[in-house]
Design a protein that fits this description.
- The structure is a single chain.
- This protein has helices spanning about 5-25, 30-45, 60-75, 80-90, 110-125, and strands spanning about 50, 55, 100-105, 105-110.
- A hairpin with a 2-residue loop joins strand 1 and strand 2 (about 55).
- The radius of gyration is 19 Å and the shape is globular.
- About 60% of the residues lie in helices and about 10% in strands.
- With about 140 residues, it is an alpha+beta fold.
- The longest helix has 21 residues, at about 5-25.
- A four-stranded antiparallel beta sheet has the order 2-1-3-4.
Amino acid sequence: MKITRKLIVLVILCLTSASSLASDHSDISLSTSEEISHLLAFVANSGCTFERNGRSYDSHKASNHIDRKYNYVRKKGLVDSAEDFIKYSATESSFSGRDYFVTCGEVRQPSGEWLLEELTSFREAANGSFETQSVLP
């Protein structure tokens, strides 16, 4: 069977396209991606109030903001783990340096601590006991 030049070019183009698509998402592992997706859904569905730079936001707006910030810091190569996601996307304002807070019911706490607790619970439920790296001072 004779392979034509057009077929070879087509195969090369397909491989190049597949390679570039894979590199867009290969900066983090599948398990890290699943953990981050879980944390974003956890925030959105929490019903908690988020404080950012002195203003309060509902959980859906907070999740959207964190997701946009995550996409920005991920493109800069700052996210290799769910802990990095929390540290760079959901802990403090990039502009003011002020911590983010979450209020669930009567309990107000730094959002980074709240998300690390949830990450630990998620990992324990999914994989058994798993230690999280501290990203907070």
